[in-house]
Amino acid sequence: MGTKESTQRRAQRVRRQIRKVAGERPRLSVHRTSKNIYVQVIDDAKGHTIAAASTLEKDLKGSLKTGADTAAAAAIGKLIAERATKAGVKEVVFDRGPYIYHGRVKALAEAAREGGLSF
């Protein structure tokens, strides 16, 4: 089994567990690359995105040294918490995807919790 297949299997395993515990809560989905990090609050029942944020946004891009460090992830976590709260979402289910809960993913999650999201 190659790296791509194992990554996809890991992501599917995580999402399967999320579906079991989610209930009516939307999903806070994280995607990271070597240069940026992206996050969305997704309502799977309706099939649409409630809020989104990434390190590619112009107002953040100037203030961050790079989009690929824990400081950038923390800034995105605070921003998504602010946007989700503004949209009326307080509780979410954290979807780390195929990524381990460490480093940038952990920094984003902790900042989102500090910003007011509950998961």
Order of strands, main sheet, comes to 3-2-1-4
Biggest sheet layout: 4 strands, mixed
- Please tell me how large the radius of gyration is: 14 Å
Instruction: Tell me roughly what share of residues is in helical segments.
Output: 40-55%
Key terms:
Nucleotidyltransferase, domain 5, Large ribosomal subunit protein uL18, ribosomal protein, 44% helix, 119 residues, Ribosomal_uL18_bac-type, ribonucleoprotein, globular, four-stranded mixed β-sheet, 19% strand, 4 strands, RNA-binding, alpha+beta
Q: What can you see in these coordinates?
A:
The chain has one domain: Nucleotidyltransferase, domain 5. 44% of the residues lie in helices and 19% in strands. It contains four helices and four strands; from the N terminus they run αβββααβα. The protein has helices spanning 3-22, 58-61, 70-86, 104-114, and strands at residues 27-32, 37-43, 48-54, 93-95. Helix 3 (70-86) packs parallel to helix 4. The longest helix has 20 residues, at 3-22.
